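Saturday, quiet lab. Running sequence design on the structure tokens for the scaffold JK sent over.
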């Protein structure tokens, strides 16, 4: 998620045509180090906002794969200013490892005058303090396939070779109509633009519900990258997209299949334990001042339903395939009680 997906700052949201900024820094961290960035334990720092659905993909993947010790984590304040994501949650307002106040400082060390804004997720090279990549589409795929030597014992295969074509096809539809579709609706500047985007969102959600009615996960009988990418939008749906982005034909809680599916994932170790509803709501309602000029954050929705039985296990499936669930969340990475159901 970029500071503003373009230029103009927080007040520009909803006042100009929306375009999703492409990742400008596409270097990859790989096992062979082909781009000059080899996989090394402790060398890199993952910078996220728990508010951001794109960054949340990396949070879930890192937990499921057990990369906490290999790839350290920096969590930015959910309410960023027009300069960029800031580390005001840390003592002294500086990231304790990188020593910077703003994520933009790592971007500037890599390149000046870069296009596309300052976005998360971002991976920073700790020794140099330079940004390595902000390619949100590729980061999690590489965590799953290039960082395998550092995976925990029992880590699931989130991007199995034999299923990649199907996973890619599902993810492409989910990205266009759901992940990005809610933003096209929320940041629309005209009625026709909004209605077209909102129609796409709910058409795709209904197709996904039909797909998931008889199978526990999107592709095969285990959790894959496709489920992670759908989850990070669905978990935010009623809290922000339904009201703030006007995607209000129905609430997720009103769709029997999708509500059960997302609760199943939320209650799976590695998913819900990375979600901070407080950060999510404060970011969207306080940062997007072009849409919500008062900055008032709504009290709802009620979060207690996230922990209710979902009965999706009756469909079978093996969440982690031949692997095992991740262990408990590290104490220094636990979501505060205010952000949990």
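Result came back. Writing it out in full:
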């Amino acid at each position: 998620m970029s500071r503003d997906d373009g230029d103009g700052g927080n007040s520009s949201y909803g006042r100009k045509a929306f375009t999703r900024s492409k990742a400008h820094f596409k270097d990859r961290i790989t096992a062979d180090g082909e781009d000059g960035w080899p996989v090394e334990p402790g060398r890199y720092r993952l910078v996220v906002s728990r508010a951001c659905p794109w960054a949340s993909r990396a949070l879930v993947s890192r937990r499921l794969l057990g990369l906490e010790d290999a790839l350290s984590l920096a969590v930015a304040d959910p309410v960023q200013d027009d300069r960029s994501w800031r580390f005001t949650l840390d003592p002294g307002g500086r990231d304790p490892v990188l020593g910077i106040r703003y994520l933009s400082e790592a971007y500037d060390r890599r390149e000046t005058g870069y296009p596309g804004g300052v976005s998360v997720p971002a991976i920073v090279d700790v020794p140099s303090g330079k940004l390595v990549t902000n390619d949100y589409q590729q980061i999690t795929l590489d965590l799953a396939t290039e960082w395998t030597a550092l995976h925990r014992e029992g880590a699931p295969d989130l991007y199995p070779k034999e299923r990649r074509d199907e996973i890619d096809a599902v993810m492409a539809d989910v990205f266009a109509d759901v992940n990005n579709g809610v933003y096209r609706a929320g940041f629309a500047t005209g009625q026709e633009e909004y209605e077209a985007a909102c129609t796409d969102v709910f058409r795709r959600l209904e197709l996904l519900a039909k797909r998931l009615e008889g199978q526990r996960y999107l592709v095969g009988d285990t959790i894959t990258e496709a489920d992670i990418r759908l989850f990070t939008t669905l978990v935010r749906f009623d809290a922000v997209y339904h009201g703030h982005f006007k995607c209000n034909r129905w609430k997720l809680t009103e769709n029997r299949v999708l509500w059960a599916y997302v609760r199943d994932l939320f209650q799976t170790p590695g998913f819900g334990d990375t979600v901070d509803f407080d950060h999510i709501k404060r970011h969207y309602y306080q940062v997007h001042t072009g849409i919500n000029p008062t900055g008032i954050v709504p009290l709802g929705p009620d979060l207690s339903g996230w922990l209710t039985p979902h009965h999706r296990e009756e469909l079978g499936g093996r969440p982690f395939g031949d692997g095992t669930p991740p262990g408990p969340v590290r104490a220094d990475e636990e979501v505060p009680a205010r952000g949990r159901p």
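Notes for JK: The two ends are 24 Å apart (CA to CA). Strands lie at 44-48, 72-75, 122-125, 130-133. Ask whether to fix the surface positions before the next round.
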